[in-house]
Write a structure and sequence with these properties.
Helix content is 36%, strand content 13%. With 439 residues, it is of the alpha/beta class. The two termini are 33 Å apart. 40% of the residues are buried. Keywords: Hydrolase.
Length: 439
């Protein structure tokens, strides 16, 4: 109707004017409305390397972005989680590093490391686990819930004759065989190790002997003992001008060595870190936890994943978006099959599908988000001048497809929803998309 003015507009204006009068006690109606308007219905998932930092050097746009995300007391205005494929430290350590870099207090509950979803794999927590990586791997494993942990260094000390590549490390005197050789039941790859030849040799030995390194190699059992891997990044961006080898490169070596020796494919019980849906599901759980802690009433409906790598950040966000879409469309059977495929488990057995679904749902509860949107920045791995093939059937060289072997290449999944210059531009774009204007 021409000339019609909605009643809420003059009411808000009147309340605003009255609120400025001396001695006024704020109207409960307008106060609640204002508070509700400032409550976000979206959450932010930030990658770290190439988005906020390059190596240990913070990017200029990072502090600008986070000045927009906190109030005068340093509290976050929207739920924020940092999702990194790094796996060489504890969550608290990473939170402390981010706090110093960004000038904002970050809690460990806002950090998802590549190994964080291992907390959900309770069935392995009491088994004897061999861990590979660098940093405080023993502390990391125990912090995740594992109780019987063996490191590569511990294994090497028990069996020094197995590590023979470096001639200078070969023992001068033959040591006695260990009385009680450690039996390995599970292998967990946290991230790229320092001595690749040592780690490759001992991990392959473990797989070929079914975890009994004290016995001679006979006919290896297949499938081998469970293998879980975190961080599939082939490359990552540090201070160098070009990307550096990541844990994904180490995994390529391990997979090809195992296949060359046995003629069979190396199998993963689960793959974690981006682009695995397990990682995004865990991150979404932490987003919801923040919202609940702040007593925000609005459910978190949209996630924005900001990253610099199309094969991990964008692919993973789009993959999780598809999962959310299928969940909301009640296509649970199809969604479960895709989840099983992503995590490297069999999609054929119904019991395995149900087990994986129960693990997610029971540990974390169902997601509230209905969409996960990808925002690509140009400050890291992504090169805006590199073209991605539009036909998935084309021959894709390794220089283009940097995703893991077990993730089929789908061109649609590497297409970001938005491309921006840097993380500050990403935050501005998201606020505009959500019509969110914090005071």
């Amino acid at each position: 109707m021409k000339g019609f003015r909605p009643l809420w507009r003059p009411l808000n204006t009147l309340c605003s004017r009255i609120a400025r009068e001396p001695g006024h006690r704020r109207c409960g109606q307008c106060g609640a409305a204002a508070e509700s308007a400032l409550q976000p219905s979206f959450g932010l998932l930030f990658d770290i390397d190439g988005v906020l930092v390059r190596g240990k050097t913070p990017l200029p746009a990072a502090k600008k972005a986070f000045q927009k995300l906190v109030d005068t007391r340093g509290q976050f205005l929207v739920p924020v989680v940092f999702v990194t494929n790094a796996g060489n430290c504890l969550r608290q350590t990473k939170a402390d590093q981010l706090s110093e870099i960004l000038g904002v207090k970050i809690s460990q509950n806002q950090v998802v490391m590549s190994h964080s979803p291992l907390r959900m794999f309770r069935k392995y927590h009491k088994k004897s686990v061999l861990v590979s990586g660098q940093g405080p791997v023993l502390d990391i494993a125990k912090n995740l819930g594992f109780t019987k942990v063996i490191t590569i260094d511990m294994l090497r000390e028990a069996f020094p004759l197995l590590d023979m590549v470096d001639h200078n490390r070969r023992p001068k005197i033959l040591p006695p065989s260990p009385v009680n050789p450690p039996k390995v039941e599970v292998v967990v790859l946290f991230g790229e190790p320092i001595r690749w030849e040592t780690n490759l040799q001992l991990i392959v030995d473990t797989l070929l002997t079914n975890g009994n390194l004290g016995s001679a190699l006979c006919n290896p059992t297949y499938p081998h003992i469970p293998l879980l891997a975190c961080n599939m990044d082939l490359m990552w961006m540090a201070e160098a001008q070009s990307p550096r080898f990541g844990h994904g490169t180490f995994m390529v070596c391990l997979e090809n060595i195992y296949k060359k020796i046995t003629g069979k494919e190396l199998r993963y019980e689960a793959l974690m870190g981006k682009p695995s849906e397990l990682t995004y599901h865990y991150a979404e759980y932490l987003i919801r936890a923040q919202s609940a802690e702040r007593k925000w009433r609005k459910p978190i409906r949209t996630l924005y994943a900001i990253g610099d790598n199309v094969m991990t950040d964008v692919y993973g966000a789009n993959l999780y978006n598809r999962y959310l879409d299928e969940k909301s469309s009640k296509k649970s059977a199809k969604a479960l099959a895709k989840v099983a495929a992503v995590t490297g488990s069999s999609a054929t057995a119904v019991s395995q599908e149900e087990e994986l679904d129960n693990m997610w749902e029971n540990e974390l509860s169902p997601p509230s988000a209905v969409a996960c949107k990808s925002v690509l920045v140009c400050t890291g791995v992504y090169n805006p001048h590199t073209e991605i093939p539009t036909d998935g059937n084309e021959c894709i060289t390794e220089t283009v497809f940097h995703g893991h072997r077990d993730f089929g290449f789908e061109p649609a999944l590497v297409e970001p929803d938005h491309i921006v210059e840097d993380v500050d531009a990403a935050v501005q774009l998201i606020f505009k998309q959500e019509n969110y204007a914090p005071q």
